[in-house]
Amino acid sequence: MSQAPWAIQTKRLRKVFDDLVAVDDIDLDVQAGTITALLGSNGAGKTTTMAMLLGLLQPTAGAITMLGLDLLKERARIAPFINFSSPYVDLPNRLTVRQNLIVYGHLYGTAHMSERIVQLAGQLQIGDLLDRRHGSLSAGQRTRATLAKSLLNEPRLLLLDEPTASLDPDTADWVRRLLMDYSKTSGATIFMASHNMQEVERMCDDVVMMKGGTIIDRGSPQKLRETYSRENLEEVFLDIARNRNL
Amino acid sequence: MTLPATATFERPHPVLRLLRRLLAIAERHMFLYLGSWPRFIETLFWPMLNMLMLGFVSAYMLHQFSSATVVASVLIAGTILNEIMLRTTMGMMVMFLEEIWSRNLGHLFTSPLGVSDYIAASMGFTFVKSIVSIVPAVIVALLLFHFSLLALGWPVSLFALLLIMNGWWYGMLVIALLLRFGIAAEWMAWMSTWLMVPLMAPYYPVTILPGWMQIISWSLPATYVFESMKSLIAGHGLQADYLAKALLLNIVYFIGAAFVFYRAFQGARKRGGLLQVGE
Questions:
Q1: CA-closest candidate to residue A52, choices A62, A41, A42, A43
Q2: I need a labelling partner for B192 at 20 to 30 A (CA). Which of A148, A163, A220, B77 fits?
Q3: Do the Cβ atoms of B212 and B204 come closer than 8 Å?
Q4: Residues in A touching B42 (Cβ below 8 Å)
């Protein structure tokens, strides 16, 4: 079966809240099978862009194509093939981790549910947490449980907001490796927002820089470092945020 | 362009996929109730408490006026049937509030769950929940007050069904209120579930209400159900035309409420309310 060359494409995507232009006519192409990061300071428009891509926020104008289909018209066809995780959107606190995974497994139509849950529990090291209530978990454990939910349906497109938020350096390290392996072995696309520049440098093939609701630069981490003559992505980020070398 | 297949993703018949989604929502709330005894007991508690209160009022009336058997029976039957409608409306509202309280709306509505799936699942779950919630009240009525709701015969199931339908569309309007104004409108939502009760006259004839209230009362499907119930208890027959009117009004209001709900949902999508339904 063929695969769309672009996992995400937006054309003149715009979102206006009252008199605030949160996202201003952005054209975004994310190649299938890559890991792409969306970077920007607070208020740059990342969360708004991500919410529009998830179908949770209706654009004021513009088009979104995901996995080759128009998101605004064919969300029902696309939804089974995407998933997401964010530390700012929770799972039901009073359900156990296993119960949440069962509910979402049924929503996504996951086959061989029990095996899939055991497999993910092993990969994300949450086996001993499966029968604990989501609300009783630490922030880092919740991040891993939510990541398990986001991988239940083996998504072709995985949208992640701060995927390693609240994780200790060791756990964050193997979670990054897990996500990179997942993308590599399954050919899935990962589109993520992160403030961790080292994480982005390590994981991402492509970086999209946003500021004031627009895309102001993009390229591989290496290309951006060369363009801005900087040692690392964090310095590039600071240059852009502080209008230096632009 | 075609979507790529995944290793563990089944593509069974669309009806089967729809059923799975509906069951997933029911399952999510079943897990919640089975894992939380206070929640489960609360479901049974209020209908039983109201039954006890109005049951004793009816027992007192019978003690004072032996001829008040019809009024006493109306009080008890009205209490049980009123609870069916209330529990359905509240059930729809609480299901949605649970998603707001747990900040789960974002996950739900990025999944393959559609808006109409969610409403259908809520309707199915509240149907079962409201029937289960009145079982203790029915038993209390029988054991303490020697009143059997089932003695009214098969029309009871029609009354219950029409009142559940009333609860469904009213529940959709309450959810629309929450979608529009967020959790800040929670107190308004709780209040509005009781708003219709005096108007639909479950315990007294509609003619007792002031003229302007009667006009509103006759616009509610539940009023026709309760009038039919009172007529049946008084031995004047079922008044099938009233039940037909209740059904017709329920259908009209259901369509209207679905439209309002859909508009409120779209509005929340425009404002970003699905990610930030809060104060």
A1: A62
A2: B77
A3: no
A4: none
pTM of the predicted model over 0.80: yes
Locate tokens 């209230």: which residue? Answer: B213
Reported ipTM: 0.91
- Look at chain B and count its residues: 279
**Nearest C-alpha neighbor of A23 from the set A6, A44, A53:** A44
Continuous segment of H or E residues that includes residue B274: none
Determine the residue among B18, B107, B266 to mutate to test chain A binding: the one whose Cβ has the most chain A Cβ atoms within 10 Å.
Answer: B107
Contact (CB<8Å) A2/B4: yes
**What b/e string do you get for B41-80 counting C-beta neighbours within 10 Å, with b at 16 or more?**
eebeeebbebbbebbebbbebbeeeeebeebbbbbbbbbb
Q: Are A238 and A207 in contact (CB under 8 A)?
A: no
SS3 of B27, please?
A: helix
Q: Which of B27, B107, B113 sits opposite A102 (nearest CB)?
A: B27
For A66, nearest residue in chain B (alpha carbons)? B3
A111-120 long-range contacts, CB within 8 A, separation 24+: A111/B8, A111/B9, A111/B10, A112/B8, A116/A152, A116/B8, A117/A148, A117/A152, A120/A148, A120/A151, A120/A152
Whether the Cβ atoms of residue A140 and residue A172 lie closer than 8 Å to each other: no
Q: Which residue of A has its CA nearest to B10?
A: A111
In this structure, the number of other CB atoms found within 10 A of the CB of residue A135 comes to 14
Q: What is the pLDDT of residues B54-96, one digit of tens each?
A: 999 999 999 898 788 899 999 999 999 999 999 999 999 999 9
For tokens 């964090």, what's the residue?
A234
Q: pLDDT in tens for each of the 279 residues of chain B?
A: 444 434 344 466 788 888 999 999 999 999 999 988 888 898 999 999 999 999 999 999 998 987 888 999 999 999 999 999 999 999 999 999 999 999 899 999 999 999 999 999 999 999 999 999 999 999 999 999 999 999 999 999 999 999 999 999 999 999 999 999 988 888 888 898 888 999 999 999 999 999 999 999 999 999 999 999 999 999 999 999 999 999 999 999 999 999 999 999 999 999 988 876 544
Written as six digits, the tokens of A158 are 């995985």
State the greatest distance between any 2 C-alpha atoms of chain B, in Å, as a whole number: 79
In this structure, the dihedral spanned by the alpha carbons of residues B201, B207, B213 and B214, taken in order and rounded to 10 degrees, is 90
